[in-house]
Amino acid sequence: MVVKKNDLCGQAERFIFSGDYGKALEKALLAHRQKDDRALKLLVWIYRMMGKPAEALRCLRALPGDADSLCEEAILYRMLCDFKSAREKISVAADKYKRKKDAEGLGFAYWTRGGIERYGGNPKKAFLYFQKALPLTKEMSAKAYVLCGLGGSARLLGNYDLSKDCYFSANRIFSRANEKFGIAYSSCGLGSAARMKEDFKKSRKLYKKAVSIYEKINDRWNMAYSMWGLAQTLWFSGGKKEALKINASCVKIFREFSDPRGIFYCALQEANFLRMDSEFKKAAAALKKSAGVPVKLSLSYEKKLLKEQTKLISSKDPRRL
To answer: Fewer beta carbons within 10 Å, N or C terminal of the chain?
Structure first.
């Protein structure tokens, strides 16, 4: 990418592509101060990729409320765990794309809705929306993100082979384009697929790769989710102390980003670790920390996980889970 020295937005785009969000932010902020109309959209993208949805929303509100902006807004509300607002925004965006007969835009809306349903506790709905998005999505990088959505939903539905295949295809696309965030995201997904197949050596390697990339591009929020998976892999590989330590570090990061869903998963994981070590009282106390989150956020899938873990703790069952 050839960029002129005085084209700050062009420079920001180049840094986004290379995964250097710190430098991209610096250039975009300078461009915004110089009244470059392109800067706000770039700032929304950069802040979102850095796991800072509140800052991204602040910038987005100064932009026109077209379908693309509504999709971005829906993604940001999803990141803030406001799934009701996310669904409202994406429904309006999808209607706008349909009226314009914009197939590519509609694919983007379906992908966005899939992400909302996946993180909002409805993996079956998520899978269906990602399936609808795939044939409408032509650009290869965008297609890879749809494949990641399918992979993540398939894993939650118990189809680990399909999950692996989807993430592998996405990872290949991202690797060819040297797209750092995508490589990290799909590597984390491959790590999760390997973990569910109990290939802990491979899983650990993939999670560490994802964590390393996220750290380099300064995306601590997504890094924490990869660390969460790494903790579980380490536990089942015999590294129990390290697993608990990493899980505790994830809690700190999720608190920093005000992510109740992430905090819940850490509490669930800590309870699971303690229960498998027959520390049932400690497990119950750990689970209690965030037990209200699935109900508060209307997370159907997470409600089932909570119920299952509560039952095992109550019956003093240390089985592996």
So the answer is: N
What confidence tens digit (pLDDT) does each residue in 23-37 have? 999 999 999 999 998
Residue 284 and residue 313 in contact, taking contact as beta carbons nearer than 8 Å: yes
Stretch among 1-5, 253-257, 311-315 having the lowest mean pLDDT = 1-5
Domain ranges for the chain, please list them: 1-52
What is the residue whose two structure tokens read 């800052």?
55
Closest C-alpha among 89, 26, 9, 99 to residue 57: 89
Q: Counting Cβ atoms within 10 Å, is residue 182 exposed (0-12), middle (13-18) or buried (19+)?
A: buried
Residues 6+ apart with CB under 8 A from 1: 10, 13, 14, 17
Torsion of CA 130, 97, 137, 152, to 10 degrees: -20
Answer for the pair 111, 126: CB distance below 8 angstroms, yes or no: no
Q: Are 264 and 290 in contact (CB under 8 A)?
A: yes
Phi (first) and psi of residue 170, to 5 degrees: -65, -45
